[in-house]
Amino acid sequence: MRRVARVAALVVAGFASLAVGSGSVRAAEGLVLDKIVAVVGDEIILLSQLDTLVASSPLLQEALQKYGRSPTQQQVEMATREARTQALDELIDQQLIKEAARFQISITDADVDRYLQQIAQENGFSNTKQLREAVEQSGQYGNWADYLQDTKDQLLVYQTTRALANTSVTDAQIREQYRKMVRGVDIKADLLRFVFTPDEQTAKSRDAAYAKAQAVARRMRSGEDPMALAQEFQIQEPKATLSRGEVAPAIEDAIFAARVGETVGPLETGQGYLVVKVVRHDTGNVLPFDQAKERIRMQLEQESFARAVKDLRSSLRAKTHIDQRL
């Protein structure tokens, strides 16, 4: 959604208005003209709507940036055409999604008020009164009521998209993304490692190995000396250093999520049952998974939402008659 950036654009939209002003409202022989620039299903989009969006969004400013501080009139016109093309696509997509909201998604006045407060805060205004003053001074909306209706429409599009598009992110996806982020980074853990292997591949033997692993884990958690336990259970080399990527993901996650001094296990492995006591973590400058996971979740949800929006809009366009007349 481009709404958060729009108010800042309104404040600096004076120059942009020079380019847009020649579009939707023309004086010709005493008549004020408007025209249809697109038909979406049974709905129309007017040039005046298009020019309002262009002037109140970053689209024109972004298109003008490539021409430097003093663009020529020709460059302004080229940038305006480019911005209008992008803005028309945005308006068509918004209309499509609003058309798709047939299962009664509603936007309340309270929803609009909360969003206005967010816009005000993110654009440096102390309250929505200052936001209103900036909008009215910009001249890009007929009045405050028009701006409120536009905001409500934007919220409807956003909520409908969230309802129609699948943007969920699983814990497995978060862990996989974390592994990709730390791949190639030397992250290590110093451990005291106890592996209990069944004497033979029978249920009885596996149960016996698991019972030993449980007993060791319980005694370590109660404070017994791990080295004394290693001697008692004839563990020859309990000290070990583990790097990420050396063991199965589930085991790796359990070990690297544990705090220093914590006992982990028993964990089932291909060899038997593993119990470890974490002695030291060496993560370099990389955040541990527990500290990074919410940030990763937000990133993945944003990416998932963007993909879902693109797919949804493509699907809706394929099912709807659209006639562009710009």
TrEMBL record:
<keyword id="KW-0143">Chaperone</keyword>
<keyword id="KW-0732">Signal</keyword>
<dbReference type="Pfam" id="PF13145">
    <property type="entry name" value="Rotamase_2"/>
</dbReference>
<dbReference type="InterPro" id="IPR050280">
    <property type="entry name" value="OMP_Chaperone_SurA"/>
</dbReference>
<dbReference type="GO" id="GO:0003755">
    <property type="term" value="F:peptidyl-prolyl cis-trans isomerase activity"/>
</dbReference>
<keyword id="KW-0574">Periplasm</keyword>
<keyword id="KW-0413">Isomerase</keyword>
<dbReference type="InterPro" id="IPR046357">
    <property type="entry name" value="PPIase_dom_sf"/>
</dbReference>
<keyword id="KW-0697">Rotamase</keyword>
<protein>
    <submittedName>
        <fullName>Peptidyl-prolyl cis-trans isomerase</fullName>
    </submittedName>
</protein>
<dbReference type="InterPro" id="IPR015391">
    <property type="entry name" value="SurA_N"/>
</dbReference>
<dbReference type="Pfam" id="PF09312">
    <property type="entry name" value="SurA_N"/>
</dbReference>
<feature type="signal peptide">
    <location>
        <begin position="1"/>
        <end position="27"/>
    </location>
</feature>
<feature type="domain" description="PpiC">
    <location>
        <begin position="208"/>
        <end position="280"/>
    </location>
</feature>
<dbReference type="InterPro" id="IPR027304">
    <property type="entry name" value="Trigger_fact/SurA_dom_sf"/>
</dbReference>
<dbReference type="InterPro" id="IPR000297">
    <property type="entry name" value="PPIase_PpiC"/>
</dbReference>
